[in-house]
Structures are given as C-alpha cells and as structure tokens.
C-alpha cells in the first residue's frame, strides 16, 4: 500500500475483489489464503466480505479513512496488486469520501 492507502482503504471496502481461483493457496503456486475467499463462478473467487454490499474485505485491518492495513499484503491477489493508488477509480472513491486526490501513478505497479 502507498502511504496514502494507509489512511484510506476505500478500494478494499467498495469493489468485489475477484480473481482466478488458482491464485489461492489451494492451488500449487497460489498465494491468497483460500479460506479468505468465496467462489463466485466456476473459475473465479472473491475476497470474503467483498462479494456483496456493503463490502469490506476480510483481510482489511483497521478503520477505513483513518488507519488501515492489509493482513495478507505479500500474498494478495493480482487484482489487488494491479489496482494503483492515484488511478481514476482510486480517486473517484477518495473524492466520494472527502479525501484529496492523488497524483496519477507511474507506469510501474507499486
Ligand atoms: S482507494 Fe486508492 S488510496 Fe485508497 S486504499 Fe485504494 S488505492 Fe489506496
Ligand atoms: S486483500 Fe488486502 S489489498 Fe486486497 S482488498 Fe483485501 S485488504 Fe485490500
């Protein structure tokens, strides 16, 4: 998470965080703890807590908008890795929560 993420957490409490099931540790080479996920289709799982609204990822620790952290940060899915602080969806969520916009990310994932 970027420094700004540590006082935000908006994306972890809004989107359905889904990804290919083989990213879970139920599959060789997978990392995301399978017990923190829920099947949503034959090939996709979602982080528990994000499959319905109001969403809150089960791996999110802390209080959104104040201080948060991801309890599985090194093991998180590609969906989480690819979501970048400062991208349009990030800033839309931040704006909706009264948080200042962030500069657009560099090309390289954080
Ligand atoms: S919405 Fe943006 S700033 Fe907030 S936690 Fe997600 S990536 Fe970080
Ligand atoms: S796994 Fe971590 S980064 Fe991904 S949505 Fe959950 S708390 Fe956020």
Structure notes:
A hairpin with a 4-residue loop joins β2 and β3 (44-47). With 110 residues, the protein is of the alpha+beta class. The mean pLDDT is 95. It has one domain (4-96). 13% of the residues lie in helices and 16% in strands. The protein is built from 2 helices and 5 strands. The strands form 2 sheets. The chain has a 3-stranded antiparallel β-sheet, with no helix packed on it. The chain has a two-stranded antiparallel ribbon with strand order 4-5. It has helices at 78-82, 88-96, and strands spanning 18-20, 37-39, 44-47, 60-63, 67-70. The chain starts with 17 loop residues before the first strand and ends in a 14-residue tail after the last helix. The structure holds iron/sulfur cluster (2 copies). One iron/sulfur cluster is lined by residues 2, 4-5, 8-11, 83, 85, 90, 93-94.
């Amino acid at each position: 998470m970027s420094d700004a993420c540590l006082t935000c957490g908006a994306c972890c409490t809004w989107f359905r965080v889904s990804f290919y099931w083989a990213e879970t540790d139920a599959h060789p080479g997978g990392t995301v703890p399978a017990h923190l996920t829920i099947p949503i289709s034959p090939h996709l799982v979602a982080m528990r807590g994000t499959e319905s609204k109001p969403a809150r990822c089960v791996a999110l620790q802390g209080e959104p908008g104040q201080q948060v952290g991801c309890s599985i940060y090194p093991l998180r899915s590609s969906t989480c890795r690819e979501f970048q602080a400062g991208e349009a969806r990030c800033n839309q969520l931040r704006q909706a929560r009264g948080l200042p916009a962030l500069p657009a990310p560099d090309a390289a994932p954080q």
